[in-house]
Amino acid sequence: MAQLIDGKLVSAQIKDELKAEVAELKEKGIVPCLAVIQVGNNPASSVYVNNKKKACAYIGIDSLSYELEESISQEELLNLVEVLNQNPKVNGILVQLPLPKHINEEAVIHAIAPEKDVDGFHPQTVGNMCIGSKGFLPCTPAGVIQLLKRSNIEIEGKECVVVGRSNIVGKPMAILLLRENGTVTITHSRTKDLKEVTKRADILVAAIGKPKFITSEYVKEGAVVIDVGIHRNENNKLCGDVDFDDVAGKVSAITPVPGGVGPMTIAMLMNNCVETVR
Predict the structure, then answer these.
(1) What is the pTM of this model?
(2) How confident is the model over 125-152, as pLDDT tens digits?
(3) Residues near 126 by Cβ (< 8 Å), separated by ≥ 6?
């Protein structure tokens, strides 16, 4: 029977650790503060933003919320980001993606001061990650590393395959696995003989954005499978990039969807917020 890697449990452990740390910081008069900007009322974004606010409240992090009309201009949004950059009470700034089409996401990400970039998307932050310098780590890939470590799954020396090359998950995931001394292959839509590559993996991370794409044919016997995807199927039930029912009987450990990687993303965002005042 495959080990179920429980993201809810691990994220709760991390949040409890952070809660204790923030309580100690408050005794010294230090209170971390996260500013969250949401443009428009995308239902999925609203759920994420609400979960982030709840996590801040639980841990003891102050949060500021800016809910802006979808029609706001790029200039107005950039002006708000700059005001928050200059506000000494604000330690972290998060702009919820996606943004409306008339706003250039890259310009907004670049506008956030790197020392307040708790999402870990700014080019300077990404550069620090690549060369191993101190800095924020992108939340979802960092959450995957914590899931593996806290589930006693060794990364060092393992053959690690990442399916997907996005800037938010695929590429940073590969870098963080490399930093843990994994031997890493990145695959994508143009990879030839994808099944042959993924079947080499001791640790397979699926971040391809296609529901139930990874079946047992892609997986080596006894592999560890991490499913980063999240979708709704034809019955409106949540599912991932991995066909869980098909794969679970073949692997040694696997993350469920929901309840796997998802909760870790917010836990690591909270960790980054506390990191700003450590």
Answers:
(1) 0.95
(2) 999 999 999 999 999 999 999 999 999 9
(3) 120, 138, 167, 172
Active site annotation includes 52:
yes
User: pLDDT digits over 55-72, tens only?
Assistant: 999 999 999 999 999 999
Which of 15, 38, 96, 243 is catalytic? The answer is: 96
Nearest Cα to Cα of residue 111 among 140, 83, 70, 133 = 83
Question: Residue 39 pairs with which residues in a beta bridge?
Answer: 68
Q: Which of 6, 119, 227, 241 is catalytic?
A: 119
- A 10 A CB-CB count for 226 gives 28
- What is the Cα–Cα distance from 32 to 275, expressed in whole angstroms? 9
Locate 166 and state its tokens.
């996005």
- For CA atoms 229, 232, 233, 239, give the dihedral sign: positive
Which DSSP category does 216 fall into?
A: G
Tokens encoding 32: 């971390």
Structural domains for the chain? 31-116 (3.40.50.10860), 139-262 (3.40.50.720)
Determine whether 96 is an active site residue: yes
243 is catalytic: no
- Which is the catalytic residue, given 6, 15, 38, 52? 52
Residue 224 tokens read as: 């560890």
